[in-house]
Amino acid sequence: MTMIHKAPWFWAWVAAIAAFCATWSLSAGGAGGTALAVAALTFGSFSVMTGLGQMLVITMGPGNTDLSIPATMTLAATLSLKLMGGMTGSAGLIVLAGLVSALAIGAGVGVANFALIRLLRIPPIIATLSASFLYQSLAIWSNRGLRIKPPQVLADFTTGRALLGIPNLAWVALIISFGFWVLLNQSGFGRRISAIGQNPRAARLAGVPTARVSATTYVICAIMAGLTGFLLACFSGGAALNMGAEFLLMSIAVTVIGGSSIAGGNSNVPGIWAGALFMYLIVSMLNSYGLGAGVRLLSTGIIIIAIVAAASGRKARL
Amino acid sequence: MVVRTGDDQTGAQAVPVVELLGASKSFGALKALDHVDLRIAAGECLGLVGHNGAGKSTLVNLITGLFAPTEGQVRYAGAANHLEAGIRAISQEGTLCPNLTVLENLSVVQRDLTGLGWRRRAADRIRSALDVIFPGHRIRSDSLVIDLTLAEQQMVEIAIGFADGLRPARLVVLDEPTSSLDASIAAQLLAHIRRFCAEGGAVIFISHMMGEIFDTASRIVVMRDGRLIAERPAGQFTRQGLVDAMGHVTESDVQPSPAALARALGDKSQAILRTPEGIEARKGEIVGLAGLAGHGQAEALARFYLSQSSDWHGAARPAAAFVAGDRKRDGLMPIWSIRRNLTLAALDTLTRWGLIDTAKEAAIGAEWQRRIGIRTPDMGNPILSLSGGNQQKVLFARALATTAGVIVMDDPMRGVDIGTKTEVYDMIRHEAARGRTFLWYSTEMDEIRNCDRVFVFRNGTISAELEGDRISEENILAASFQFDEDAA
Asked: How far apart are the first and last CA of chain A?
């Protein structure tokens, strides 16, 4: 592949690798390399899973962004953990019930989001943001401050490294990413999302069932949020009301850093991984410098802006 | 009335407000205006008529200073530019800002409305103009334009054109000013135009309502292909003479399609489609939608296509396929390759278990590249690497590559060279012979001649249905323009 440097995700990977090396060099003598990689893969997985859903939504063009991801994560995690906490019986059945309920809650949220957008003609950003208050309230109402521990099986799975020393969560995210890659690049559905993102009117006139494609996309995004919330709650030993907060901007940032076009129509999966790893590594790098929280946030913001500016500058020259 | 030149004793009638001397305007290879000499004197009302693309708008844009002439001169007597000369234009499509009030819209064009008390002065000006032109109107000068009806918006636009200002209006250009006015309001406007001219103002009046032209114009100018081809006092034209002057008279050399021949031989097969507007088509028929641009043809086609397809169900066998004329707005997927653009409408025939069969897609791309002659070394190249004509061929192929029985075409030959046109005409006739039905909106006469049946649109409704030999430029023009409106 002589053209690899022209791929939209190329610079995101360069940045991620550079951030890895920079952080690694700060830790004592390179011994921390494995630990750093494991941490990056684990925490990056959550960003990847929310980012994949957000990427599909963003591909549908300007105005399409799902801001209900954090609330959906919280709601799905709270309710599924509550369900599992109240169940007795075989561990397998409990896990299955929890997983299915988290996915179903995600699907329900997706349908609700799309219904608001379509039936009430509310712009997607407003619709998903306002709906997220509803979901968050539902989560608060059902949670009532009690902290339910996830089943031990799930806690072990989400923190484990069963295969090749790579975190189980990273494997899950990798398999899902492959599915998204097929969906985006090989399927008729992915083609249609891209068509809508480029020109919704022309897509409709070419026979694309725009409402169905759009509804499916919002549902997939919300299901991914539900799944991520479920796994994150199991990983961190329980659901918390603010557990999804950082994934609002994170899901958008990894999409954009990964080289997907914010104007719609043009997205890629490898970039999501680069973006997710980069975002984690940059924060740990700034941590290792011992900077305060304010400076850290400021630097993160500046770095994101610089990367997005560099990426759009590259496109303008093409 | 004879138009005299120079400043002689005839007073207001002879002072030219604006003068065009051999004025030409070209857009690339297209000559929109070709050596036009025209003088408009104070006190006269000039009726300007001609078919779409005859050059009327270009002429107006030269006079109002929007374009500079490519050749020749536009001269304003005693003034350096159109603003000083007191030239105002009221365009056909609204130019009001909907989020501003009536008086704020006046201040957009009248730049002297600034400083303390400008709102009061603006309100006075617009109110007195409205009162004079449309007595009995109920428009408040502090209403938002968006809250007004279409007719009221048009009245405001006209009033702004005639309103008092720093420099009084000396020539007002009215382009289809009555298109959304009812008969009584239109009559008020026509009366005002006559009054305005009697007081020494000049008007250029563009309308497809022949009655209005004859009612108000003192002189009529006919344009065709960028030239003035007839210019006479209004009294010397007859209505039929005017229509004849607008059109070319050429022999039809187009062979009727097999569907038309079969019908001529007595095949009375039923229409396979009927739209609410009254468009009908039989299997294998090429049906044209004619008339002046913007009279509801494109909307009728879009409504028909949308009613045949769904927001929710993709279809492997769609009932209809759409060919966009406005490629950028309605057709192209700009970041995709030629091949992906071509196969978009037929995507459902290419997928198995939801996944695209790329080998099959490549085969379809190659087949249509050959059949319709898309000039590119590689169908994987970006669509934007093609010329406009070849992009249009891709959009044709997109529709034809489906199994749709009806192909809807929204003036698809805009900006397409003659070679491509001929190739596509052949393709359309070939496909029609195989049983496909075409709905074809076109503003060009030689395209309409390819049709078996033509519906002429005027003001959003069908004003005539022509078939076979009756499809002629004269008949289409006659149906495009309105003759017998009640000038109440």
From this structure: 19
